[in-house]
Amino acid sequence: MRWLSALATSRAYHQHWRVTTALVRPELLAENLTARLETALEKHLERAQAWYPHEYVPWSEARDFASVPFEEAQSRLSKEVRASVQLNLLTEDNLPGYHGAIRNVMGYSDVWRTWLDRWTAEEGRHGIALRDYLTVTRAVDPAVLEDERMLTMSAGFSSGDRDGLRVIAYVSMQELATRVAHRNTGKFSDDPQLDKLLARISTDENLHMVLYRDLFDAALETDPVVAMNALFAEVVGFQMPGTGIPGFVRRAAVIARAGIYDLTVHREQVLTPLLGYWRVFERELPPEAEAVRDQLALVLEEIDRRASKQRSRSA
Ligand SMILES: [Fe+2]
Ligand SMILES: [Fe+2]
Q1: How much distance in Å is there from the Cα of 265 to the middle of ligand 2?
Q2: What is the pLDDT of residues 13-72, one digit of tens each?
């Protein structure tokens, strides 16, 4: 998603950097985040249910590729749905890159290690299920997909100069964005079996989002100035993590034009619920954080303008 990147050069983005004074010691913030992660992880492990990819794949449809070579026309899915599932799959595959990026900024204490390993295992299951589904139903050329997986994972992932709070703000948005993208792809697919699989994956993505959203909530409570700055930067600069995937821009455009995931979806189904949960526009804030919130309101207005322009272009 590149529609937001131009915002990073906007006046509002630059103005906000004048006000970044931490209210508390960084150690206290780290302590509070760790304490919140401990509770959030416990909750996650209670709620998360085991499930098995093989139960969601129509294996009886499988044919040997040596005797029946792949052809584009074999798939029952539209090109938009295929683009979306393939992009989501390559993103799932690249989890070790995201795991490493978060570990670099958050450290590798026992609780972070437990969470990151568990998270990576759950995301790996999404990759397994999606790959099996696409291969068995011939929705993708398996050789092309494998080449793309190699390219994507070899390129890895970098969170750039993001600090821990920016990473948590980003992943909260990204997990919800992934949940919405899977869910909308399923609904759009006209394929009840794929819809069922994507709904199952979305349930996991929702729990991931809940955990990161909880952590960011603790950050807002502990140090609203630093947290608001992190949130502002991530709302402005948001891009899906798949930007290193071959053909990302072209595929993202196809997905946006179909309305599976465009700027309107991002605003209504990702930004609005998250900002609402964090009570960003309702909570009492110190003046420095309030100034950032004012800038954020301007950015949201700009996002709304761009979203309606994008929809009218696709209509
Ligand atoms: Fe996932
Ligand atoms: Fe996830």
Answers
A1: 18
A2: 444 444 455 556 777 888 889 999 999 999 999 999 999 999 999 999 999 999 999 999
pTM above 0.85, yes or no: yes
Closest CA to 210 of 31, 41, 89, 50: 41
Q: How far apart are CA 176 and CA 179, in angstroms?
A: 5
Note the helical H segments in the chain.
11-15, 26-47, 79-93, 95-106, 110-136, 142-155, 164-189, 192-222, 224-237, 248-257, 263-265, 272-277, 287-314
Token duo for residue 6:
């131009």
Q: How far is the CA of 34 from the centre of ligand 2 (A)?
A: 20
Q: Can you tell me the distance from the alpha carbon of 185 to that of 199, in angstroms, rounded to the nearest whole number?
A: 10
Q: Tell me, in angstroms, the distance from the centre of ligand 1 to residue 198's CA.
A: 10
Q: Which two tokens stand for residue 293?
A: 């919130």
What ligand has the least distance to the C-alpha of 176? 2
> Over the stretch 77-123, which tens digit does the pLDDT of each residue have?
999 999 999 999 999 999 999 999 999 888 888 999 999 999 999 99
Q: Are 87 and 246 in contact (CB under 8 A)?
A: no
Question: How far does the centroid of ligand 1 lie from the alpha carbon of residue 275, in Å?
Answer: 22
Q: Which listed ligand is nearest to 91 at the C-alpha?
A: 1
